[in-house]
Amino acid sequence: MSKPGILRLAEDRILVEQVRLLCQHVARSIIPTFVLVGMIFWVISDAGDPEGTWVIGAWCVLTAMTKLGTWLHARWQLARGIDTANARRLVYVLMAVNACNGFVWGLLLWASLDSSTMVGSIFILALFAGVAAQGMSLLSPVVPVFMVFVLFQLVTGATKMLLLGGEDYTAVGLAGGLYVVIMVGQAVNNSRTARESIELRFENLSLLEKLRQETQLAETARRDAELANMAKSKFLAAASHDLRQPIHAQGLFLEVLSHTGLTPHQGEVLASARSACLASGEMLNTLLDFSRVDAGVAKPFVRPFLLQPLLHKIENDLAPLADAKGIVYRSRECAIAVNSDATMVEMILRNLVSNAIRYTGKGGVLVGFRRREGRTVMEVWDTGIGIAPENQQEIFREFHQLGNPERDRRKGLGLGLAIADGLARALGHKLSVASRPGQGTVFRLELPLWIGAVAATDHAVSHPPRATRLPGLQVLVIDDDEAVLSGMAQLLRSWGCAVAAAGSISEALELAKVQAPDLIVSDYRLRGNQTGAEAIAALRSLLGKDVPALMITGDTAPDRLREALASDVPLLHKPVVPEQLFRSMSDAINAA
Questions:
Q1: DSSP sequence for 14-43
Q2: What is the mean pLDDT of residues 562-574?
Q3: 286, 228, 462, 442: which is closest to 353 by C-alpha?
Q4: pLDDT tier at 118 (50, 70, 90 boundaries)?
Q5: Measured at the alpha carbon of residue 323, what is the angle toward residues 320 and 327, in degrees to the nearest 5?
Q6: Which SS3 state, helix, strand or coil, does residue 385 take?
Q7: Which uninterrupted H or E stretch holds 521?
Q8: Among candidate residues 377, 305, 306, 318, the one with its CA nearest the CA of residue 351
Q9: I want to staple 244 with a disulfide (CB 3.0 to 4.6 A). Which of 320, 386, 511, 574 is the partner?
Q10: What is the pLDDT of residue 122?
């Protein structure tokens, strides 16, 4: 920004602030001026010289009236408002007003020097200089206004001293001229400082406005992202629930069908159908795992455990996948114990290993460990495609996949690493990645090292026993989906159970009055916004005892998961594997 000269006015918005500052100074100066005028009259007036007293009195009245007019004008302008439309015109008005003011102060020498003593003359000249200094402090925000004031004051006073003649007055006049020059220089400096302060304030206001706008944009973007995330979660929950229902029913019917007489070819077709059904269930369970992390219902159960049994379990489960691709899968033997949630650590490691196998075409996958200052760093190495630096944080976002533009379902949903990252954060463990494109990747999970005894944990390879029979067990099944209700009833009857099927809470209560159930199996979401938890509570209240119960849900919405888990009833997630259902029913009966 170019700097204005001494007599050149600043740009409009800065000039407005300069004029406002000047008027504020003037509006605050009336009392000191009246005190000064009164002191001048008291010092200079002389009872022995009535004419001189009358002259100085008249000057005092004129000065007071001039100052009062200047003060009223400044107050009026401040009340009226100063803007870019009237600022420049107001400068010229102020110049005229202060020209009169300076002229009146210059008349002080005309009214007093003729009759004053040497001491009085020194006092008057000192006051004259002080008024010029005061004018500089009051009027310097707008230099032309001050220059007009001091010019009229100096010219009026200097004229009187020249008329008086004498070397003393001539010297005083020259000194006064030099003093005025100094005052003008100081006024220019003050004006520049005021202008720079005003400019800085405008710049700060501009920065604050930009910051406010950017903050507003960021807040809008954050709200949009939250709304989009909520919409995504709701869509996934609804889609997951609606998909789980028929897949769950399909699994039940296929299990019933497996107990019928089938030809070898029919058995092969049934096995393929069951495999496809299980694959669909696994994909939906991946969505469920992500929803559990997203809902914050995956609560850690921290305790010491040995890593080796967990490694054996994962190797036995996933090594066949590596063998099918012709790559090597190895995990180092270790006797390390850590302090964490064994189930969550298993899920993290399982996702990391699955991801490594999926993106490794040749070479292999290695699971190893390092000890570092009270912690264990679990590492999953692969010789796969690698990850570019710009994508190494993006891979932890949900549904983000590299090298799968065709969305091949065999390459998963892009949720494995998001689940691993969410579980690591829930546990407070650091999960990091290092990679070079074309050379491979290593994921590192830091776990707290445990020194001491460790209780035995069950991480052995588990194959749930195939469901056999539950003869004579009276089961009340509640589900508002007819296909699921029919499939569940047929499956339970094939296990020897006596089944009563209800589509609502009211139907279940009527059936329970006829025959009290030994076990309740209820869907969580029922008609009329009712829930399985409400159904179980109503049945228990009717029967007067805590009947063993299970809930089955296809919901993955965070709120629904939290509500279901809060009921303290064992919760299974659709599609339920028949062996899992059989085991859960047996556990519920045995625990009663």
A1: HHHHHHHHHHHHHHT-HHHHHHHHHHHHHH
A2: 76
A3: 442
A4: low
A5: 135
A6: coil
A7: strand 519-523
A8: 318
A9: 574
A10: 75
- Show the tokens assigned to 228: 């989009």
**How far is CA 566 from each of CA 297, 323, 559, 561, 587, rounded to the nearest angstrom?**
10, 43, 11, 9, 20
Residues with Cβ within 8 Å of residue 8, at least 6 apart in sequence: none
* Residues 579-589 pLDDT 10s: 888 888 988 88
Residue 6 pLDDT level (bands cut at 50, 70, 90): very low
Q: What is the pLDDT of residues 482-512, one digit of tens each?
A: 888 888 888 888 888 999 999 999 999 999 9
Task: Please name the residues in contact with 24: beta carbons below 8 A apart, sequence gap of 6 or more.
Answer: 74, 78
In this structure, are residues 311 and 284 in contact, taking their beta carbons and an 8 Å threshold? no
Amino acid (1-letter code) at residue 417: L
CA distances from 33 to 27, 68, 71, 228 (A): 11, 10, 11, 68
Closest to 253 measured CA to CA, from 495, 485, 487: 487
Q: What pLDDT shows up at residue 313? A: 83
Question: Residue 237's pLDDT is what?
Answer: 61
Query: What letter does residue 575 receive in the DSSP assignment?
Result: S
Q: CA of 525: how far to CAs of 140, 480, 518, in Å? A: 79, 8, 22
Q: Do 91 and 145 meet the contact criterion of CB atoms below 8 Å apart?
A: yes
Q: Please provide the size of the chain in residues.
A: 592
- Which tokens is 236 given? 């996934």
Q: What is the pLDDT of residue 28?
A: 79
Structural tokens at position 11: 């740009």
Mean pLDDT over all residues of the chain?
Answer: 78
Structure tokens at 60: 């005092």
Predicted local confidence at residue 517, as pLDDT: 93
